[in-house]
């Protein structure tokens, strides 16, 4: 993707910001065992941190998109990362789960702002024909977070405690804020969406259908993904080092999948990419019960890793490509779809875990991924000329 050097630097800074944001969001699943033990609560109770945070991010993404519409994106994104740093420091210092939960909910206001606004901003830094690649490139930060941030966070949490993992994220957030401030050009202010524009987004069957696909994908994945660490510990006796290795494997294929999508999405088409990547996730969920050893589980996780982050970036590129002028709103709502999926998936998975029905996690997830694929196909067919 050819672009002037200043634009390259800005896109790399946005990618790095998404890396920090993604690492911070995923640190709770990565350290769920340690949080549970440290605060003397059940794993299912600790999982409420995932559901509550996802609920805040779901509501916050569209509401905050409207609230910050007139802000200079350089200032907005840098301040958002500083807020993230402050929240992680505060979370690391609280003494109880009752105090941690509201702090976590306030902290994740940052992802509700950063990821959708970074995607919309990236689309304004490049020519129209490069928007799909630019958006998926910036979203690579989430894949890198799964490769490096999540395993390292889990490793730090396993050996030094979850509080130190949170402090590490706070430090990275400060560095990332400085990077955004130094590289992003000032004066980037996407046109504020009017009430009429928001109405167009909300009343569009295609755009809202795409957001619904995202929500189904999120529920289908997080019903199991949220409790990945505890399941591996209980079912396979995995320790902190093994968990970190498994997270790294998952993340490595996540990065590979997103890189492939970023390279070919403009050629293949975003709709087809969404179908392919969702199918890969469904395949892993279908095969999950057959994994009798950690080695086989690692093999089963490969398709899921390839599809997990790639399908989110494909969905964002799909929305930006369909209606660039409405992207600040549609991408924000898509982020809401991701987060409501996480909230519902974590809650459903917690209920299954608490009721000794863990074998149903992968089955429920597989069924939901099939629903997402069916809806995505229906959306694409509805847009074809008769």
TrEMBL record:
SUPFAM superfamilies to which the protein is assigned, alphabetical: MFS general substrate transporter
Gene3D superfamilies hit by this protein: MFS general substrate transporter like domains
Topological category with respect to the lipid bilayer: Multi-pass membrane protein
GO molecular function: transmembrane transporter activity
Keywords, alphabetical: Cell membrane, Membrane, Transmembrane, Transmembrane helix
Boundaries of every Major facilitator superfamily (MFS) profile domain copy: 10-384
Entry annotated with the keyword Nucleotidyltransferase: no
Pfam families cross-referenced by the UniProt entry: MFS_1 (PF07690)
A Gene Ontology cellular-component term: plasma membrane
Transmembrane segments: 9-29, 49-69, 81-102, 108-127, 134-156, 162-184, 205-228, 240-261, 268-288, 294-311, 360-379
PROSITE patterns: MFS
CDD domains: MFS_NepI_like (cd17324)
Compartments (UniProt record): Cell membrane
UniProt key word Membrane: yes
UniProt name for this protein: MFS family arabinose efflux permease
Provenance organism: Variovorax boronicumulans
């Amino acid at each position: 993707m050819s672009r002037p050097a200043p634009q390259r630097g800005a896109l790399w800074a946005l990618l790095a910001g998404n890396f920090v944001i993604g690492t911070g969001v995923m640190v709770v699943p990565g350290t769920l065992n340690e949080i549970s033990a440290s605060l003397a609560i059940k794993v299912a109770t600790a999982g409420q941190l995932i559901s509550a945070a996802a609920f805040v991010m779901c509501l916050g993404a569209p509401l905050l998109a409207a609230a910050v519409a007139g802000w200079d994106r350089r200032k907005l994104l840098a301040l958002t990362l500083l807020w993230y740093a402050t929240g992680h420091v505060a979370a690391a210092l609280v003494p109880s789960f009752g105090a941690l939960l509201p702090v976590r909910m306030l902290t994740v206001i940052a992802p509700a702002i950063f990821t959708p606004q970074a995607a919309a901003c990236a689309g304004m830094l490049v020519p129209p024909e490069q928007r799909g690649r630019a958006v998926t490139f910036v979203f690579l930060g989430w894949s890198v977070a799964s490769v490096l941030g999540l395993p390292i966070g889990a490793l730090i949490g396993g050996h030094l405690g979850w509080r130190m993992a949170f402090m590490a994220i706070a430090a990275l957030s400060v560095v990332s804020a400085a990077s955004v401030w130094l590289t992003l050009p000032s004066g980037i202010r996407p046109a504020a969406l009017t009430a009429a524009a928001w109405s167009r987004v909300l009343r569009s069957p295609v755009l809202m259908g795409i957001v619904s696909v995202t929500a189904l994908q999120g529920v289908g994945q997080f019903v199991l993904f949220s409790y990945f660490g505890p399941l591996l510990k209980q079912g396979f006796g995995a320790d902190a080092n093994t968990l970190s290795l498994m997270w790294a494997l998952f993340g490595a294929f996540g990065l590979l999948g997103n890189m492939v999508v970023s390279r070919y999405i403009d050629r293949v088409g975003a709709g087809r990419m969404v179908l392919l990547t969702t199918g890969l996730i469904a395949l892993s969920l279908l095969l999950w019960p057959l994994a009798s050893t950690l080695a086989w589980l690692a093999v089963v996780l490969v398709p899921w890793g390839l599809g997990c982050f790639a399908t989110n970036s494909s969905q964002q590129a799909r929305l930006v490509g369909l209606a660039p002028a409405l992207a600040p709103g549609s991408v924000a709502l898509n982020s809401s779809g991701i987060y409501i999926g996480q909230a519902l998936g974590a809650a459903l998975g917690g209920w299954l875990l608490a009721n000794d029905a863990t074998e149903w996690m992968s089955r429920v997830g597989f069924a939901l991924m099939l629903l997402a694929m069916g809806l995505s196909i229906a959306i694409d067919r509805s847009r074809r000329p008769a």
